[in-house]
Amino acid sequence: MQLGPIALPTYASLVYLGLLGGALLTYLETRHRRLPPVPIVDAALTAGVGSVLLGRALYVAVHWGYYQTHLAEALRPWDGGLAWQGALLGGVMGTALACAARGVPVTPILDLFTPAAGSVAVFAWLGCHVASCAYGVETYPGQGLLWRLSLDLPDLYGIRQPRIPVQLLGAGGSALILTIALIIRRRIRRPGTIFALWVSLQSLGSFGLGLWRADSMPQMSGWRVDHIVNLFLCGVGLATALAMMIRQPPDSGGG
After folding, report:
1. Residue 220: what are its φ and ψ, rounded to 5°?
2. Pairing of the two strands 151-154 and 160-163
3. Based on the structure, what is the number of domains in the chain?
4. Which of 44, 62, 113, 236 has fewest C-beta within 10 Å?
5. Does a structural domain hold residue 47?
């Protein structure tokens, strides 16, 4: 992607667009709730740094067979390659550190950042589409719905075949989950619940799409590692949301 005299990798450019969209959503919600901006900006910055660092670290660790002989590329996340599960954990850790330093509760801030996380997820899937990462399995005539869903797409090595458009389905699913979060966020007033529900839905969607992915991934007992992690995150998110709705009093803040 060309921006005047500056050439930006398309994957990184799309992720940046997702971040900009997320920042706008966070700004609008911050104004709506009349929240102090300084702790939110601090939390957003540390969350962003944590997401990139841990998301890239997990991606490199999972694909260490390649990166052990390409160490310089491991330090170039803008070329593509972030494990969203690591980015999620890094973002939560960064938010928690900033909130602890400012003496503010972390769960309302995580709720505030949920639309931003959803926006990044949409554009990261689109980035994978243009970078041909997270590509889908090949399809063949006679496979019914799978064949009708398929598009002529390349894999990471440029080999084009009819494939399930996993990245586009991921972007569409993430957009749907983001829309749901935006609709229900004013109806669920218990801090942390919206974020936990978003994590569970996003993880469940990633697990389902993972059944159609053909990119390489280490396996455990015949399962892709990301399948196991996604199911775990879905369970944790759902259990956390249920616990918060049962145990916590409703948030009495503005909104």
Report:
1. -130, 120
2. antiparallel
3. 1
4. 236
5. yes
Contact yes or no for 62/217 (Cβ under 8 A):
yes
- Helix runs in 34-160, H state only: 37-62, 64-67, 71-74, 84-102, 106-131, 145-149
pLDDT per residue over 160-212, tens digit each?
999 999 999 999 999 999 999 999 888 887 889 999 999 999 999 999 999 99
Q: Over the stretch 205-249, which tens digit does the pLDDT of each residue have?
A: 999 999 999 988 888 888 889 999 999 999 999 999 998 888 755
User: Is the distance from CB of 59 to CB of 88 less than 8 angstroms?
Assistant: no
Q: Per the domain annotation, does 253 fall within a domain?
A: no
Q: How far apart are CA 91 and CA 95, in angstroms?
A: 6
Supply the DSSP symbol for 224. Answer: E
Is the residue at 166 inside a domain?
A: yes
Q: Are 52 and 82 in contact (CB under 8 A)?
A: yes
Q: What angle do CA 95, 84, 23 make, to 5 degrees?
A: 50
24-83, pLDDT tens digit by residue?
999 988 888 888 888 899 999 999 899 988 988 888 888 787 787 888 877 776 666 778
The helix/strand/coil state of 136 is strand
Residue 223 lies in a domain: yes
| pLDDT for res 95 | 95
The residue type at 193:
T
Rounded to 10 deg, the angle between the 106-131 and 84-102 helix axes is 150
Phi, psi at 162, each rounded to 5°: -60, 125
Residue 177: give the domain boundaries: 2-247
What is the pTM for the complete model shown?
A: 0.87
